[in-house]
């Protein structure tokens, strides 16, 4: 199919190149397709890959409210629901802690919990997660202690957890710069013969960055076991998607790199989970990278420091509040009798417990040692850093006197 | 104080070798000794690099250890970060000084900070080889000296060899380092030859040690990389004027060897910093400040700088007017407030 459409394209180009005879001999008789002998196409050209199978679905892939949801494991649905409720509570608690001055800033994922949670649950223990600064919820859902996940935003140290122990890369603030890291790590794992997969998170704004392009290109060329999840939440701070890209969809960008693109309803937790699991296992089996675009919405402002009323009306947010990931999954579970009021209360109580622990941990003053500032710049302090450390030590001693 | 007195290996094993050959041997030995070492970059595989520094390595170690990457410097360094996170030891080639700039964000925001950010959990044992400097008749974007950009980034080591023996020793040390090393290779010294033994290369001390290339008493020329031969030549010429110049080859700009530099300046009482890159806010400015702060009472004259002009790197037919040469160095020596002047 792809071949014939490409072939007709070639013919079209040849026809448009045809010019009236300049008088240097009569043009030879045209072939049935309109081209003339002696005018040849580029040598040895053939399509390098059939783009057809790489194209994303025409509509965002969904499971909730469709017949296919009946095939899903009820236990998985309940687990996703528990994580969504916990994630929603985590977002609310972190936002409250910011308002109380306990966090310097908090970029919320309220409304995006399905993507955050599904990304974490799609991975096996040996896999790596590469989050952006907005993805602390995915980090927490992966199993990192919430207080450790939030040190960047609290401001006591840039990264609060051990990436090797947790298999979670540090939260990356410069947009899309973590994507080539995910590709390199996945490539390294494959070189060592390990069955590790890397899953990297990025937003719609991040797809405009050069590192997004370079990462996808390297991943496809190397056939690296990596999955890119774009959470298209509608806004890069204040700039909407139509000022960000002219592509048919962000998932379509995959085709240009020679990898499959998938388009999924980002608020349908089982759908995101299934699409990501398929992509992760495809990568693990040696099939190479996948780009997944999840359609979701940033219900809160960019951060607590942002005023969303300057760039969008509440009328725009309303339909997304109705398409809420927690409510959608709860409806499915209730309709199918997989959860009752008592079950929901139990899930909410567990989330409250997590929030109380988080409040307690974040309300305690962190113990900081300013001398540690010099400890991790190099494997060994340079003579210059030893001098500067001595200077700070003297300043600290003078303060204490 | 460096390897000036290092014992020479058996003469039978020494024969003329170029800096390019020594660099290649360093990578070859590192690849053979440690399977985590990977060489990657543009054209480093089949072609052996545009300067042929990696010639033959892909044939010997295979395309998975010596890899032709897509043409994208940020992607090359960004993927190297991920490989290092997984425990590999990438040796990245940036094809030319000015082509390395797209990788600056990865270098500044991640390579230099990852160890610090993670409290030591994720060290970045990455060597970034950058052919640099002018004097080769290169057209625009092929002759930059970019060391000051790198030096202003805490977390990076910045190293540049000036001799065949140092090229081998410093590159081995860079690859073995658990910290990221920007390894600046002076292009116009690539083909300079010296007697050297690939089988028994001289030992080079750890990164961060300068060496006195020529002992002298009148003044100290502090220099590195492609300007080292210029300063040695200037020192020879200065003998006719009655000056006995000491030449210090820094080898490693970060860590910076204050001890060797200041010991020399305290002996001679006069100092000039010589480098190709622009003088304003350049390496020489930092060195002049350090020497002034530490050796003030030993100085007979202000510390001078001989550097490239503060202009975009000139076209090749004009570059000789830009590059610091022997005459410009000697003119500076003459301005060091000698008695009787």
UniProtKB/TrEMBL annotation, chain A:
Keyword ATP-binding: no
Oxidoreductase found in the keyword field: yes
Domain Dehydrogenase E1 component: 91-360
Keywords, in A-Z order: Oxidoreductase, Pyruvate, Thiamine pyrophosphate
Cofactor or coenzyme needed: thiamine diphosphate
InterPro entries xrefs: Alpha-ketoacid_DH_E1_comp, DH_E1, PdhA/BkdA, THDP-binding
Residues covered by region (Disordered): 1-61
CDD domains found in the cross-reference section: TPP_E1_PDC_ADC_BCADC
Pfam families, per the entry: E1_dh (PF00676)
Classification via PANTHER family: 2-OXOISOVALERATE DEHYDROGENASE SUBUNIT ALPHA, MITOCHONDRIAL
Protein's recorded name: Pyruvate dehydrogenase (Acetyl-transferring) E1 component subunit alpha
Organism, scientific name: Streptantibioticus parmotrematis
From TrEMBL, chain B:
Lineage, uppermost ranks: Bacteria, Bacillati, Actinomycetota, Actinomycetes, Kitasatosporales
Pfam family, one: Transket_pyr
CDD domains according to UniProt: TPP_PYR_E1-PDHc-beta_like
Ranges of residues in domain Transketolase-like pyrimidine-binding: 17-192
Keyword Oxidoreductase: yes
Protein name: 3-methyl-2-oxobutanoate dehydrogenase (2-methylpropanoyl-transferring)
EC number of this enzyme: 1.2.4.4
Position of the signal peptide: none
InterPro entries recorded: THDP-binding, Transketo_C/PFOR_II, Transketolase-like_Pyr-bd, Transketolase_C
Enzyme class: oxidoreductase
The protein's required cofactors: thiamine diphosphate
Keywords noted in UniProt: Oxidoreductase
Keyword Oxidoreductase: yes
């Amino acid at each position: 199919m792809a071949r014939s459409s490409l072939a007709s394209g070639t013919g079209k180009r040849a026809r448009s190149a045809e010019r009236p005879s300049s008088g240097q001999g009569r043009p030879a008789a045209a072939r049935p397709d309109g081209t003339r002998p002696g005018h040849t196409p580029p040598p040895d050209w053939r399509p390098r890959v059939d783009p057809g199978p790489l194209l994303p679905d025409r509509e965002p892939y969904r499971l909730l409210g469709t017949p296919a949801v009946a095939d899903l494991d009820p236990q998985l649905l309940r687990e996703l629901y528990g994580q969504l409720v916990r994630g929603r509570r985590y977002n609310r608690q972190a936002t409250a802690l910011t308002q109380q001055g306990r966090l310097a800033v908090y970029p919320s994922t309220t409304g995006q919990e399905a993507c955050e949670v599904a990304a974490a649950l799609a991975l096996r223990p040996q896999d790596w997660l590469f989050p952006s600064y907005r993805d602390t919820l995915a980090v927490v859902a992966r199993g990192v202690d919430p207080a450790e996940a939030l040190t960047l935003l609290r401001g006591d140290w840039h990264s609060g957890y051990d990436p090797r122990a947790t298999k979670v890369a540090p939260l990356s603030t410069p947009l899309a710069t973590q994507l080539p890291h995910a590709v390199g790590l996945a490539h390294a794992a494959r070189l060592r013969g390990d069955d590790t997969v890397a899953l990297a998170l990025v937003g719609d704004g991040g797809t405009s960055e050069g590192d997004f392009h370079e990462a996808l290109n390297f991943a496809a060329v190397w056939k690296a076991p990596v999955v890119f999840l774009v959470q298209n939440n509608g806004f890069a701070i204040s700039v909407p998607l139509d000022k960000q890209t002219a592509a048919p969809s962000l998932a379509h960008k995959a085709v240009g790199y020679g990898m499959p693109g998938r388009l999924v309803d980002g608020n349908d937790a089982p759908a995101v989970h299934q699409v990501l699991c398929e992509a992760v296992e495809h990568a693990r089996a040696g099939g190479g990278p996948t780009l997944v675009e999840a359609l979701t919405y940033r219900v809160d402002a960019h951060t607590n420091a942002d005023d969303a009323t300057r760039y969008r009306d509440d009328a725009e947010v309303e339909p997304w509040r109705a398409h809420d990931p927690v409510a959608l999954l709860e409806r499915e579970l209730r309709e199918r009798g997989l959860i009752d009021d008592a079950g929901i209360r139990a899930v909410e109580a567990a989330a409250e417990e997590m929030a109380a622990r988080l409040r307690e941990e974040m309300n305690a003053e962190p113990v900081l040692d300013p001398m540690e500032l010099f400890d991790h710049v190099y494997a060994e302090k340079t003579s210059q850093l030893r001098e500067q450390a001595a200077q700070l030590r003297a300043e600290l001693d003078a303060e204490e006197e | 104080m460096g390897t000036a007195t290092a014992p020479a290996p058996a003469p039978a094993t020494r024969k003329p070798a170029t800096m390019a050959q020594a660099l290649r041997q360093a990578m070859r030995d590192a690849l053979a000794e440690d399977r985590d070492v990977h060489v990657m970059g543009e054209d480093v595989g089949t072609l052996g690099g545009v300067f042929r520094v990696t010639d033959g390595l892909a044939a010997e170690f295979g395309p998975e250890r010596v890899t032709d990457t897509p043409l994208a410097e940020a992607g090359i360094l960004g993927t190297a970060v991920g490989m290092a996170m997984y425990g590999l030891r990438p040796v990245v080639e940036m094809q030319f000084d000015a082509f390395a700039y797209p990788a600056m964000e990865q270098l500044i925001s991640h390579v230099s900070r990852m160890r610090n950010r993670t409290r030591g959990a994720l060290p970045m044992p990455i060597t970034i080889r950058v052919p640099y400097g002018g004097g080769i008749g290169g057209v625009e974007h092929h002759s930059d000296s970019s060391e000051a950009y790198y030096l202003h980034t805490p977390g990076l080591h910045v190293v540049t060899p000036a001799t065949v023996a140092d090229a081998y020793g410093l590159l081995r040390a860079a690859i073995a380092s658990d910290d990221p090393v920007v390894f600046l290779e002076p292009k116009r010294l690539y083909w300079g030859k010296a007697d050297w033994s690939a089988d028994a290369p001289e030992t080079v001390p750890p990164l961060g040690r300068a060496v006195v290339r020529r002992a002298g008493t009148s003044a100290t020329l502090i220099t590195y990389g492609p300007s080292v031969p210029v300063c040695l030549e200037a020192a020879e010429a200065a003998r006719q004027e009655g000056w006995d110049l000491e030449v210090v080859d820094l080898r490693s700009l970060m860590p910076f060897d204050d001890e060797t530099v200041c010991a020399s300046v305290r002996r001679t009482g006069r100092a000039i910093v010589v480098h190709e890159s622009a003088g304003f806010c350049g390496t020489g400015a930092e060195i002049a400040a350090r020497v002034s702060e530490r050796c003030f009472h030993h100085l007979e004259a202000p510390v001078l700088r001989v550097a490239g002009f503060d202009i975009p790197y000139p076209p090749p037919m004009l570059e000789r007017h830009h590059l610091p040469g022997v005459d410009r160095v000697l003119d500076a020596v003459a301005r060091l407030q000698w008695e009787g002047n």
